[in-house]
Amino acid sequence: MPDVFDVLSKDHTEVKRMLTELQTGPTKQTGADEDQLLLRKKMTEELIIEESRHEAVEEMYFWPAVREHVPDGDQLADEAIEQEQEGKEVLNSLDKLNASDLEFENLLGKFAEAAREHIAFEENMVWPGLRSALTAEAASEIGTKLSEAKKTAPTRPHPHTPPSPGALKTTGPAAAMADKARDAMTGRGGD
Fold first, then answer.
1. What is the pTM of this model?
2. Are 63 and 166 in contact (CB under 8 A)?
3. Domain contains 108
4. What are the two backbone dihedrals, phi and then psi, of residue 153, each rounded to the nearest 5 degrees?
5. Cβ atoms within 10 A of the Cβ of 161, count?
6. Mind listing the pLDDT tens digit for each residue in 149-190?
7. What is the C-alpha to C-alpha distance for residues 121 and 115, in angstroms, rounded to an integer?
8. Among 7-16, 70-79, 171-180, whose mean pLDDT is lowest?
9. Where would a tag sit more exposed on the chain, N or C end, judged by fewer CB atoms within 10 A?
């Protein structure tokens, strides 16, 4: 079973791949046609779905482990969660726009820069301390929790939901059900 760092690393790699693809793809400003803009919106929806799931499960299981096991864990977790909250605000706004909207590219660029900075902060400032503090068994247990929780995590950013593990474990499944119902009705995230 993959450990916490394997699970998060896979997510980070996928997000960076999506960001690169979106940042190098055709935009309205570079002459993208209607089909390319629809594909761009769909790709952005996939990014938002993956990021929403990722951040929700981190807030439920990863950041509590950082707080418990890492010296200065509270400070590191607070800083990271603040970054994540700002990201949720941007993604929430981005999710409401079409790829043909001028503000779409501005928000996407803002999110891409912040996401890369957040990933670097997490991997370089947080992971080393947690990696040395956890046993292999504990790291594997957290990895399992993250993987399982992603299956029922919200698919949309919820910037107004408190980023506390208790609130997310309580409201997360209901929010996820509502998100998935909305996704099914609109075709968001579908193939």
1. 0.85
2. no
3. yes
4. -80, 155
5. 18
6. 998 888 877 766 666 565 555 555 556 555 566 666 667 676
7. 10
8. 171-180
9. C
Read off the pLDDT of residues 16-26 as tens digits, 9 standing for 90 and up. Answer: 999 999 999 99
Residue 5 lies in a domain: no
Instruction: Give yes or no for a contact between 48 and 91, defined as CB atoms under 8 angstroms apart.
Output: yes
Using DSSP, state whether 34 is helix, strand or coil: helix
> Between vectors from CA 61 to CA 22 and to CA 140, what angle results, nearest 5°?
95
Q: How far apart are CA 77 and CA 124, in angstroms?
A: 13
DSSP 30: T
Asked whether residue 191 is domain-assigned, the answer is no
Indicate the DSSP class of residue 118.
H
Residue given tokens 């929430």 in the structure block: 92
Q: Which domain holds residue 68?
A: 10-21+35-186
Phi, psi of 168 (to 5 degrees): -70, -40
Q: Is residue 160 part of a domain?
A: yes
**Assigned token pair, 20:** 């690169």
Instruction: Tell whether the model's pLDDT for residue 69 goes beyond 70.
Output: yes
pLDDT at 161: 66
- Could you tell me if 83 and 121 are in contact, meaning their C-beta atoms sit under 8 angstroms apart? yes
* pLDDT for the residue 91: 95
Nearby residues of 120 by Cβ (< 8 Å), 6 or more positions away: none
Q: How far apart are CA 90 and CA 72, in angstroms?
A: 28
